[in-house]
Amino acid sequence: MNHTVAGFLLLGFTMLTAVVVYAIGELSDSIKASAGYLGAVMSEQGGADLGWGGNLISSNIAVILLLLPVSIALYLIFYKKD
């Protein structure tokens, strides 16, 4: 396998991983919103959701860490010679 093919393969797997990370983050936000709504309804405060805040750090760390394989893939595709 030459370096260009390996780079494209790594880039494809990185994009697939990014989609999975995004989907898990959305699922986490949905579960938090649902729990907040149920907590508010059960405490008879109406339909307001609880103030959860965001997991800005944990969700951004995964995205930032995906930059490493992207940079390696771009290096393999454009700069590495056989």
Describe this protein's structure.
There is one protein chain. This protein has one domain. The model has no long low-confidence stretch (mean pLDDT 80). By secondary structure, the protein is an all-alpha fold. Helices cover 76% and strands 0% of the residues.
The overall average pLDDT, rounded, is 80
Count of folded domains: 1
> In which range does the helix fraction lie?
over 70%
Largest sheet: none
Question: What is the N-to-C order of secondary-structure elements (H for helix, E for strand)?
Answer: HHH
Quick structural gist:
By secondary structure, this protein is mostly helical. The chain has three helices and no strands.
List the helices and strands and how they pair.
Layout (H helix, E strand, L loop, with lengths): L2 H40 L13 H10 L1 H12 L4
List its salient traits:
mainly alpha; 3 helices; 0% strand; 82 residues
